[in-house]
Amino acid sequence: MKMTMDSALADARERLLARAKRDGLTTVGYDVLPSPLGALWVAITPRGVATIHYGEEPSASELRRLIRVYGPGIVPDHKRSSTLARELDQYFTGKRREFDIAYDLSGLTPFQTRVLNATAKIPFGSVSTYGAVARRAGNEKASRAAGGALNANPIPIIVPCHRVVGSNGSLVGYAGGLDAKRRLLAIEGAEVARPSQDGAAGAAPYVRGLGPGRQGPEHADGGRRP
Amino acid sequence: MEDPALTFGQLLERHERELFAYALRLSGQRADAEDLYQDTFLAAFRAWPPPRRGNERAWLYKIATNRAIDRERKAKRIVANVDDLPLAAPRRDDVTLVDLAGAIETLPVGQRAAFVLRKLEGLGYVEIAMALDCSEEAARARVSEALKKVKAAVA
Predict the structure, then answer these.
(1) What's the predicted TM-score (pTM) here?
(2) CATH number at residue B82
């Protein structure tokens, strides 16, 4: 039987990682997934998806967070990313409006966590504003800080920070680039050119998209599932 | 770009290919090479963190070499499996692969490691000295002694 170096190494690596896992040496699995928005570096912890990063390599700060929380046992793992890969694929092809996979915000500050959990409640096909998200995170004056927390969102797409726009309806910014933000909102059929009215007392926090059947169901549990 | 901290995955992705090739060249057999590769990385993960930043490569070679020497002492002699030799072969070569692999295989393990690290893996003497846990001078001596023997064997 003739074997190439590549297949011999792939076999050896698979067995090595299985042994390391059995011995409790590894904690987090990562993978690079293709998507219509380019490659995504993703990391899955025992609690859920901890990272979706636009690009083939994680950012230094993202890696630092993972190492701080889970140690250095962060290894390539295609099996572990398969559920996420399937859900993302369904989302990008218009077959999924909500993610069932759990997410993991360990290592973030309480304020960041509140902002991101509030963002996770913005329904598919809707947009909200930084001010509204700050209010839902418990500090309505902190819209700039909420913007900072969203800017550092480690799990874009699943925690849909693309659904947060400026109070005048402008897209403002996005880690994956404004074009990615536009495309995500287009997939969801969200209307963004229309300014939100949620500065007014008691106003509805979300601006609904205008397309037919775009009433996204609201998460009942903050998106964090055990 | 700043490299904040190292993960097992990064160490693996950066160095596993050359370490696996080294294991194949040292042992001459795929099954042994795979064991050596696994043992090397598991030992590295257990001994985490690497002793000094930027020396991960030499550190891994050192672990692999020590493990290979231990194994050899226990198992005494290894007979190379001819089917596995093309895997272990250097890319450019005038002599036949079987001749060369056979010649390398007859070297004592310390000299074999030195020879493979220098001539097949292309490490510098500083790294070889670290990997073999000896002085640079001793590393040069071992490579030169091994080279003499290999040349004689394939002449």
Answers:
(1) 0.77
(2) 1.20.140.160
Candidate from B5, B37, B87 with C-beta closest to A16: B37
Q: How far is B2 from chain A (nearest CA, A)?
A: 7
Give yes or no for B47 touching A (CB within 8 A): no
Q: Is residue B1 situated within a structural domain?
A: no
Architecture of domain A5-92: 2-Layer Sandwich (3.30)
Question: In degrees, to the nearest 5, what angle opens at C-alpha B90 toward C-alphas B86 and B92?
Answer: 115
ipTM summary value: 0.78
Query: Could you tell me the two tokens for A90?
Result: 């369904």
Q: Is B82 touching A (CB cutoff 8 A)? A: no
Q: Phi and psi for A153 in degrees, rounded to 5?
A: -55, 115
Give how far A58 is from chain B: nearest CA, Å. 11
Domain segments of chain A: what residues? 5-92, 110-208
DSSP output for chain A: ----HHHHHHHHHHHHHHHHHHTT---EEEEEE--TTS-EEEEEETTEEEEEEESSS--HHHHHHHHHHH-S-EEE-TTTTHHHHHHHHHHHTTS-SS--S-B--TTS-HHHHHHHHHHHTSPTTEEEEHHHHHHHTT-TT-HHHHHHHHHT-SSTTTS-GGGEE-TTS-----TT-HHHHHHHHHHHT---SS---TTSTT--S-EEP-STT--PPPPSSTT---
- From B47, which residue of chain A is nearest by alpha-carbon distance? A25
pLDDT tens-place string over residues A134-185: 999 998 888 889 999 999 999 999 999 999 998 888 888 888 888 999 999 9
Residues of A involved in catalysis: 161
**Chain-chain contact of B49 with A26 (C-beta, under 8 angstroms):** no
> What is the dotted CATH code of the domain comprising A110-208?
1.10.10.10
